[in-house]
Each structure stands twice: as structure tokens, then as C-alpha cells.
Design goal:
Elements (H helix, E strand, L loop, with lengths): L9 E5 L7 H11 L3 E6 L2 H6 L8 E4 L5 H14 L3 E6 L18 H22 L3 E12 L12 H19 L6 E7 L13 H11 L8 H12 L9 E5 L10 H8 L9
Parallel strand pairs: 1-2, 1-4, 2-3, 4-5, 5-6, 6-7
Helix pairs in contact: 1-7, 3-4, 4-5
Length: 273
């Protein structure tokens, strides 16, 4: 038996888009430790594109923007799996194509769509799967390392992730009325994923993060997957209603002497001497 003790347990993973997805890396860790992973992807086209990557796996289709599809996928999963030991929610969407880059100009429709897909879907999924969740199941979502820093290029997704962090807390409390199911989030720092590539200015921010992180190396998707697998396991049984920040120390190092010197050198040239 491995330390995580995931052998013979069943998990549902929402959000695999390609081999670089956080969800895919989490699923690989779970499978490597002997767990059964059931996959749910956004569309038939997405399932077709993952045919080789997820060959031989059970893959369902569910667009979480539609309650009926969430209800249907929960019923389909329940037919084959009477008990789930955990759920991975790795879903986020923002329409950056129509976003001007100025937060105060975000449209009501775009903001609410992002909340619906990225945040409310966790509530809907948890409720739909509730009848088959093991009493001590673990639900893990993927958030960001901080929602208190106004990174302009990230647009309106940070407030949505703040709502997601709060949702984790309220779901944990609500489910505690009838179970011991835990809800947690991994607050990940900047990652090199296909989804992040679509965020304006992300590459520059990613490169800056590499400078700020004490080890001078960016956080990896595998590190996020490892943390998520831990939270899904019984080894993290004392952790509930939390966003576990995973940023490789970036949040402690913004005032690194070399970075400060480089940033203000053009303003105060004498500091470069």
C-alpha cells in the first residue's frame, strides 16, 4: 500500500483538455497510485481530440454551463460507480476575446458566464454527485495563489476565483450537516498550460514569476497535481475548507534585493553603482 492509500478508490476528474492540463496531471497521479479515474470533458469534440490520450478510459461529456448535462453525467456515473471517493474540479473560463483589459469595462454577460462556468459549476457538480459520494470523500478544485493582487492582464478571473475560494468554505460547511466530505482548493501560482497561454500578458508575468520565486524556477503542473492528490487522499483528512497556496515561495519574495534594484534602477541610477 502506498502512502496516499488510493488503491481501489474511484475519482471523477472534470476539466481535461489536453496533456498539459492540470486535470490530466492529477488524473495521472491518481492512476499511478492504483485509483480508478472517471473523466468528464466539455464536448464530444473534446472527447474525440483526447481519444488517444485517454485510450481505454471511461470518458463522459458534460458542459457544466448546463444543469441538465450535469444531472445526466452524474446519473451515468452512478450507474457504473455506486461510490465515489473524490472529485476534481479543474474548470475555468473567461471570454478574453471581448475583454478590453480594463476591469471596469467587463460586461455583465462575460462576468456572469465566468462565474457560472468557473465557480457555480463546483456547487452543481457536488450536489449532483452527492448521493454517491463516500461519507469521507474529498472534493478538490483548482484556484490561484492570490486573489488580492490586481494583476490587470488576468482581468476579471481573479474575482471569480475569489468566489470559488469562498464557495469551497460554504460547501464544506453545508455538507458537514450530513457527511464528512471535505472541500479544498489548490491555490496555484503561474503555470505553463495551454489555457494560460490565452491570457493576455501571461508570458511576461510567468517570466517575472520565475525571477521572484526563491528557487528561480517556476511552479510546475506536476507539483500542483501532487498537492491535489494529497488533498484527495485520506492523508489530508485534517484539511478542510481551505485554499492551500502553492506558489513555490513567490508570495514571500517580492522584495528580493536584486529584483528591487533592477526595478528602480532606471529611476534612481545611483542604486546600480
Amino acid at each position: 500500500m502506498s502512502f496516499l492509500n488510493l488503491e481501489g478508490k474511484t475519482f471523477v476528474v472534470f476539466g481535461v483538455a489536453n496533456k498539459r492540463s492540470v486535470a490530466y496531471h492529477i488524473a495521472r497521479v491518481l492512476e499511478a497510485h492504483g485509483a480508478t479515474v472517471v473523466y468528464s470533458v466539455r464536448s464530444e469534440a473534446r472527447r474525440d481530440s483526447l481519444d488517444t490520450l485517454l485510450e481505454g478510459r471511461e470518458v463522459h461529456v458534460c458542459d457544466v454551463a448546463h444543469d441538465a448535462q450535469i444531472t445526466n453525467v452524474a446519473a451515468a456515473i452512478a450507474e457504473k460507480h455506486p461510490t465515489l471517493h473524490g472529485v476534481v474540479h479543474s474548470i475555468a473560463f473567461a471570454n478574453y476575446e471581448s475583454f478590453s483589459g480594463k476591469f471596469h469595462e467587463v460586461s455583465r454577460a462575460d462576468f456572469l458566464e465566468a462565474v457560472s462556468v468557473s465557480c457555480y459549476s463546483l456547487i452543481a457538480i457536488a450536489n449532483a454527485l452527492r448521493p454517491i459520494l463516500h461519507e469521507r470523500a474529498s472534493v478538490v478544485t483548482i484556484s490561484i495563489s492570490t486573489t488580492r493582487m490586481a494583476v490587470e492582464s488576468y482581468g476579471y478571473m481573479a474575482p471569480v476565483k475569489a468566489a470559488l475560494d469562498s464557495t469551497v468554505v460554504f460547501l464544506a460547511k453545508s455538507f458537514s450537516r450530513f457527511s464528512k466530505v471535505r472541500f479544498n482548493a489548490v491555490g496555484a501560482g503561474l503555470l505553463k498550460t495551454s489555457a494560460s497561454a490565452g491570457i493576455p500578458g501571461y508570458v511576461e508575468n510567468y517570466m517575472f514569476a520565475e525571477r521572484v520565486i526563491p528557487r528561480q524556477e517556476a511552479l510546475t503542473t506536476q507539483e500542483v497535481a501532487n498537492a491535489a492528490a494529497f488533498l484527495l487522499s485520506e492523508r489530508s483528512s485534517g484539511i478542510n475548507a481551505r485554499t492551500v497556496v502553492l506558489d513555490a515561495g513567490m508570495g514571500t519574495n517580492y522584495f528580493d534585493a536584486d529584483i528591487v534594484k533592477h526595478a528602480i534602477g532606471g529611476i534612481y541610477p545611483t542604486l546600480d553603482s
